[in-house]
């Protein structure tokens, strides 16, 4: 935890960036801890396997925002020696992944699940880092390269005994095979032989970090250029349409657990459009007040994500959660309303915590 006492000397913060980070972590907290998951409407639940719904847009948005943040962070450190900056960056990634392992231990126990949300973010940023001081065109080529490599492996390399491009059974995909081979089946999610934050999917996640980095570089170069923002928004729409088109042409479904390149394109395209709109409203047109209420949560997004996951995992291990949703539902007569109240209450609590920390200028940064 650090205090931002030097805030007055720092460049003006991008309100839309803090707000976007806040929305991503708020949705992650709200959607990841349902007490009665079956009661939620379909659009608030992940598909069983293939498909794209609202919850599927949240995690990639967080990675995309991390890429945008990386662009602004590096723009403030352009005079810093790249080797020195790399060492600091590697230390931060190591700490981030260590925190992820701690969360895995608390949630799942032993044998330890090696990968998870924070590990995926860390590895995606690690693969994006070499491009941070290159021109935008090279950043985009890097993103295209990661997506292409992942697509080729998924479509043309099959697990032993499985036809390449067959995505019917998650454990039998090439992604599940690689996870089992490299990590060991006992160190995958629920010891299933497949990890939804697995190794191959990190390639497309890294591409999303690079697409965020490219957008950040574009905004830094064109901070108040409405035409440039319109161009970026159109590119975002085109990217989403391209992902849907390729899903039909290539037979590569939109699939979050596999983190398919088509899924990465669609989610990145949607978030490019949404973020550019937020940036135009808040940071170009000056309507910051529409988003400032989100800033406290956005500035402590990592703290809220880690603390909320640990709190829920510990409460479940201590036996506090079983039956709480059902008991509330029996009182108010609705399972849906009961789980929404409990999820909303948890989110409101973390908004209050983030607001309290913000008033004291306390922010947790790696």
Largest sheet: 2 strands, antiparallel
Subunit arrangement of the protein: single chain
Q: Strands of the largest sheet, in order across it?
A: 1-2
**Structural classification:** mainly alpha
Portion in helices? 55-70%
User: Overall 3D geometry?
Assistant: globular
Number of helices: 13
Strand content: under 5%
Which value, in Å, is the CA radius of gyration?
21 Å
Description:
By secondary structure, the chain is mostly helical. It has a domain at 1-45 and 291-366. Helix content is 64%, strand content 1%. The chain contains 13 helices and 2 strands; from the N terminus they run βαααααααααααααβ. It has helices at residues 15-32, 58-76, 82-108, 117-128, 136-156, 174-183, 201-221, 226-250, 261-284, 295-299, 301-317, 324-332, 335-359; strands spanning 2-3, 362-363. A two-stranded antiparallel sheet has the order 1-2. Helix 2 packs across helix 4 (117-128) and helix 2 crosses helix 7 (201-221). The protein is globular. It starts with a strand and ends with a strand. The model is unreliable at 2-10 (pLDDT under 50).
Note the main attributes of this structure.
single chain; 366 residues; two-stranded antiparallel sheet; 2 strands; disordered N terminus
Compose a concise summary of this entry.
This protein has 366 residues and is mostly helical. The chain has 13 helices and two strands; from the N terminus they run E-H-H-H-H-H-H-H-H-H-H-H-H-H-E.
